[in-house]
UniProtKB/TrEMBL annotation:
Residue span(s) of domain M23ase beta-sheet core: 10-95
The protein's name in its UniProt record: M23 family metallopeptidase
Molecular functions (GO terms): hydrolase activity
Native source species: Dactylosporangium cerinum
Pfam families: Peptidase_M23 (PF01551)
Lineage: Bacteria, Bacillati, Actinomycetota, Actinomycetes, Micromonosporales
EC number: 3.4.24.-
InterPro entries: Cell_wall_metabolism_enzyme, Dup_hybrid_motif, M23ase_b-sheet_dom
Keyword list, A-Z: Hydrolase
Length: 163
C-alpha cells in the first residue's frame, strides 16, 4: 500500500507483539491467533497497541508508512505494507488462504442479483474484487461497471473487441 499513512486492521483476533526495527522489515506487528497461525505487518510508521494486547478482527494494530529512510521502515523502497501469514508449523503462506479459511461471521448481504436477478453495486464490487484477486485488475472496486471494469472483464474473457 502506498501513499497516505493508514491504520492497519487485524485479519483475525489474537495477541499483539511489537517488534521494533525487525531487520529489513522495520517496525513489525505480529498477531498470534488462537489457532496457531501468526499474522505480521511490516514496514510500519507506528505501533498503536502495547505488547500483549488482545485484539478482535478488524482492530487497528499499527500504521502504514515505510517511507525510504524513515524510522521503522527497514529496507523499504517506498511506502507500502508487507503482510505475512505464518501457519502453525512455521511456514509462511499466502495471507488470502488464511482469510478464505477464516471468513467473517455473519452472512454477506444479499445482492440485487440474488433477490431480483439483476446485477447491482454489490454484485459489481464482488466482480471487480474477483478480477483484482485473480487477474491483476487495477481499476476501482466501487460497484460501478465503468469502462475500466468492463475492459478488465473482457480481457479475462479474451474478448479483443473491448481493447
Amino acid at each position: 500500500m502506498g501513499g497516505a499513512v493508514i491504520g492497519l486492521p487485524a485479519c483475525g483476533a489474537g495477541t499483539v507483539t511489537n517488534i521494533p526495527n525487525n531487520g529489513t522489515g522495520g517496525n513489525t506487528v505480529t498477531i498470534a491467533h488462537a489457532d496457531g497461525y501468526k499474522s505480521q505487518y511490516l514496514h510500519l510508521s507506528a505501533f498503536v497497541l502495547a505488547n500483549g494486547t488482545s485484539v478482535a478482527r478488524g482492530a487497528t494494530v499499527g500504521r502504514s508508512g515505510g517511507a525510504v529512510g524513515a524510522p521503522g521502515s527497514g529496507s523499504s523502497t517506498g511506502p507500502h505494507l508487507h503482510w505475512h501469514m505464518i501457519n502453525p508449523s512455521g511456514t509462511r503462506i499466502n495471507p488470502l488462504e488464511y482469510v478464505a479459511a477464516h471468513p467473517p461471521t455473519g452472512a454477506l448481504p444479499k445482492t440485487t442479483t440474488e433477490t431480483t436477478g439483476e446485477p447491482g453495486p454489490a454484485c459489481y464490487r464482488r466482480m471487480q474484487n474477483w478480477l483484482r484477486l485473480t487477474n491483476g485488475y487495477t481499476g476501482p472496486i466501487d460497484g460501478v461497471m465503468g469502462t475500466i471494469s468492463w475492459r478488465g472483464f473482457a480481457r479475462f474473457l479474451n474478448l479483443d473487441a473491448w481493447d
